[in-house]
Amino acid sequence: MKKNVFWNWFWIFISLVYFFIPLYATFNFSLKARKGELSLLAYQQMMEDPRILRSLIFSTEIGLLTILLGLLLMVPTVYLVRLKAPRLRPVIEFISLLPFVIPAIVLVFGLIRTYSGGLLPLTNNYTGLNFLLIAGYVVIGLPYLYRSVDAGMSAIDVVTLTEAAQSLGASWPTIMLRVIIPNLRSAMLGAAFLTLAIVLGEFTLATFLVGLKAFGPVIWQVGQNRAYEASALVIVSFIITWVLMGLINFVGRRGAADGSVAAGPR
Amino acid sequence: MSNNARVVASGGNRPKPPSIRKSPPSFAWLGVLPFLVFVVLFLFLPSLSLFVGGFQDAKGNFTLENIRGLFTPFILNAYWVTIKISFTTAVMGGIVGFFLAYALVAGGVPNWVRSSLMTFCGVASNFAGVPLAQAFIFTLGRVGLLTVFLKEALNIDLYGQGFNLYSFWGLSVTYLYFQLPLMVLIITPPIEGLRREWREAAENLGATPSQYWWHIGIPVLMPSLLGSMILLFGNAFGAYATALSLTGGLINLVTILIGSQIKGDVLHNPNLGYALAFGMVVVMAVIMSIYYALRRRSEYWLKQ
């Protein structure tokens, strides 16, 4: 058994080194903006760069709207299917998993082709493009949203709760807002934080639809010509991802591994 | 609900079956409708438009010319490089990820090491795209920290020996940063599903550890292992941002090619671009079908 423990530590050590070095290298670089000494100059420059804060705010807004739209579409659907049409459940599940087969670059290609003319020309004004971006993010987040909301609903007895509320005379809005949604809070929060993590640094959809308004393309742009600022940005975006993942753990979402990882911005 | 009430009211004197009041069948459909409309508009229609475009010529007539165009050396090469890099990183990430996950599950490791590494895997599997590419430039680029360290301290000249971060192997090393943690996250539940009783039973019957692995452990885990690696394959197959910001679009991947095609018609045939994009969907659909088939197979043991 001693030998096994050695190999266990061996793999852990190798992985730790591999995980740690790029972060260390980036962090180390970010402190060297001033020649010959360690300083936080790169971080200061980053804070003073108006594009960065502006794009971060823009992407956060897009993320929040994505969460809102995604939950508005998903929660009633999953609820009603459970309550009234359990036979439809595999269909909804299948549809929700479909985005896994459509790479982001293909999705944005299709969105642009479909909405650059025709009946619904969304790509010729900013509102339309922003909406298209949000819709694309909802599509990308669909598998995770579904899994999360569905798992949240399985944890409570939707049918009994609904019947109990109905027999006490509750209307449909009351049932949704005061019975179902409060019980789904941690599932919905988990979905929200993951969606935000996906949207904030997302590059592919953002660069083709809104360009440098979004955070992902700005990180790329800064990386093209301002290395020190870029390294500070990498550290910051790593910390943002870490915080959001930590929040997911905190609200108690676990075990949705493949849903939570296959959607990330590659 | 008000709709339903009107129906009942307008029914006049004819007696209505009371069951209609209890669960009107149209209601569920109405609530599901926004979701279905959304999916049709933003998932089905875009895919359909690429699919249809792939079978049209510039004038909109049906043609198979674009499909034939996919089998020209340049595009076949793009698919080949994409498949090669996805395969390489899926196998490497899969194997190392399995050993790491096993090391974390098997015990002999303090709990805090295990839980913090697991959390880190959640973060790292979502830390991809542009920031990841840049982190690797700071590490293994020409003046990256590790490159310089190896050269100055150990006298190993990576670039002199043919390594280049902006090429196939550089991209693979970078992809591993999200592939490896993803593997750990998806293979951990099946490893945890290996019952201690099976091992004890095997040992009681006189099995050696290698016999246990050969006859029990590996057969039980095989569907999960293959399934996870296939998922990793798909994960790398669709990657765009990481590859673009690392190589500046110099590597001939399908995603990069599609990106250039969106920016400006580099293939000089928009419809060939649609066929190219839909080809990716076909490959991904095959991959995900195999993944779900294998996952169902692996759940058989986990549920026992």
Index terms:
heterodimer; A: 266 residues; mainly alpha; MetI-like fold; 13 helices; 0% strand; B: 304 residues; 2 domains; 14 helices; 77% helix; globular; disordered N terminus
Written overview of the protein:
The complex is a heterodimer of chains A (266) and B (304). By secondary structure, chain A is mostly helical. Chain A is 78% helix and 0% strand. Chain A has a single domain, classed as MetI-like fold, CATH 1.10.3720.10. Chain A is built from 13 helices and no strands. The relative contact order of chain A is 0.14. Mean pLDDT of chain A is 86; it is low at 254-263. Helix content of chain B is 77%, strand content 0%. In chain B, helix 5 packs across helix 11 and helix 10 runs antiparallel to helix 11 (209-237). Chain B has 304 residues and is mainly alpha-helical. Chains A and B meet through helix 1, helix 3, helix 4, helix 5 and helix 6 of A and helix 3, helix 5, helix 6, helix 7 and helix 9 of B.
List the helices and strands and how they pair.
The complex is a heterodimer of chains A (266) and B (304).
Chain A: H1 2-30, H2 41-48, H3 50-84, H4 89-97, H5 104-115, H6 126-155, H7 158-167, H8 172-183, H9 185-201, H10 204-209, H11 215-225, H12 227-250, H13 257-261
Chain B: H1 2-10, H2 19-22, H3 25-54, H4 65-70, H5 73-106, H6 111-126, H7 130-140, H8 145-153, H9 168-193, H10 196-204, H11 209-237, H12 241-247, H13 254-263, H14 270-302
